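Researcher: Next entry in the queue.
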Amino acid sequence: MCFADLNGELANDVAAANEQRAAKNGARVMAATVDVTRREQVQAMIAKTVEAFGKLDVKFNNAVVNKPMNFLDVTEENWDFIMGINGLGVLIGMQEAAKQMIAQGTGGKIINTASIASRSGYDNVVPYCASKFAVVSLTQSGARDLAKHNITVTGFAPGVVHTEMWETLDKDLVEIGFKEREGQAFEDLAEILALKKVSVPDDVKGTAAFLVSHDSDYMTGQMIHIDGGWVIQ
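Model: Structure for this entry, 233 residues:
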């Protein structure tokens, strides 16, 4: 398994943290530094992975950024930054992974991370919503095109996951005047969920593992929601 991030030090730390667990299952881990918007860097990451492990079976496109701005304040810079990583980065990741899988002739799985924001537009995270709508479209389009190569394309759409990104988002929402105090975004969002609580990464990993496994071999073009009941409200 190759852990890749723009922050190479972080990628190395994650790989090191998973090294013993991987070894117990007869697997190995490695790390790579990559900017997902730079095709040559994505190509180099895939080449490094194939060199280490012999082939590419799964590509997980999970890089994401967000920077809230009220609708009328959204700038070209804000749009390009978010759409570049969340949208173009997924397209490049899918394309380069598919090229490698096709060359191998062994099929494969591509998994994309969308969001609850792929189901509805919100006025203070406009580029983010647009980028996640794009991820759903890319997943469906890729599934149609790559099926003939025995490559499936699926994804999952989390709701509110208590991560460092969401902690930053919580502060940003206060800064633009959408919330009065830090922590309020988590509280308000939890209240509208059927399960009445925000999620943590452990709530998501099982679905990711399922999509990677052979249990999902007959799925393609699908997006699984892990949102605590947001979409049914």
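Model: Strands lie at 2-5, 30-33, 58-61, 108-113, 151-158, 223-226.
Researcher: Noted, moving on.
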